[in-house]
Specification:
The chain is of the alpha+beta class. It has a single domain, classed as 3-Layer(aba) Sandwich (L-fuculose-1-phosphate Aldolase), CATH 3.40.225.10. It has a seven-stranded antiparallel β-sheet with strand order 4-3-2-1-5-7-6, with helices on both faces. β6 and β7 form a beta hairpin. α2 packs parallel to α5 and α3 crosses α6. It is globular and about 50 Å long.
Length: 234
């Protein structure tokens, strides 16, 4: 089928990124979604549709007011969370939410993921934050919208920025990650799951382990992301 429409490229980007979720073992069944944002509108996975059944034309396009722009299917139930994050974190262009096992375990334990090794430091120079639990009144209002607000509040309260910290755990729920594209947000979701797994195994082996010393954290972060970064091919 040949897809037409104003947002063909955006819907194709969202489609390809969503297909990465099962390929990277981030979720089973329909337990996850990715959106792609062009600065004005975003395309997101439809609610409850198996990854294998997705097509580019399945993607649903909405604006930042939540108005449907293109698509015939109902958008992901997490759409309001994505919408709030795009409004409040203006430099991001893709968001991934899954229920990957180790990240969810940390979220259910309501614990930040400590910075224990250089793998973590290569991708973030702070702990991976876990939010507080959402209160009863917020759940009653609009759960998905309040999830987005909770993520934003966690970042503001902790003095974090969405460019330097590209992932979070929502307490009792699971992980969200983002990036400069939909596919990069999936990449960060994979990294998050691996870091959560490594941290869990490390603490299982050595419950009293201390965070990685700051001078090592700084070296690994700066060699990839600093002004004089030298990792990779430039």
């Amino acid at each position: 089928m040949t897809m037409t429409g104003t947002y063909k490229t955006l819907r194709e980007e969202a489609f390809e990124a969503n297909r990465e979720i099962p390929r990277r073992n981030l979720a089973i069944y329909t337990w996850g979604n990715v959106s792609a944002f062009d600065g004005e509108v975003f395309a997101i996975k439809p609610s409850g549709v198996d990854y294998e059944a997705l097509e580019p034309e399945s993607m649903v396009v909405l604006d930042l007011d939540g108005v449907l722009i293109e698509g015939t299917l109902k958008p992901s139930s997490d759409t309001e969370t994505h919408r709030i994050l795009y409004r409040e974190f203006p430099n991001i262009r893709g968001i991934t939410h899954t229920h990957s096992v180790y990240a969810v375990a940390w979220a259910q334990a309501r614990r930040d993921v400590p910075l224990l090794g250089t793998t973590h430091a290569d991708h973030g120079d702070t702990v991976i934050p876990c939010s507080l639990l959402m209160d009863e009144e917020a759940v009653k209002r609009n759960y998905e919208l309040e999830t987005g607000k909770l993520i934003v509040k966690t970042f503001r309260d902790r003095g974090l920025n969405s460019a330097g910290t590209t992932m979070i755990l929502v307490a009792g729920h699971g992980p969200f990650s983002w990036g400069k594209s939909a596919m990069q947000s999936v990449y960060h979701a994979v990294v998050l799951e691996e870091i959560c797994k490594m941290a869990y195994l490390t603490i299982s082996l050595e419950p009293g382990i201390q965070p990685l010393p700051e001078h090592i954290v700084r070296k690994h972060w700066e060699r990839k992301h600093g002004h004089a970064a030298y990792y990779g091919q430039g």
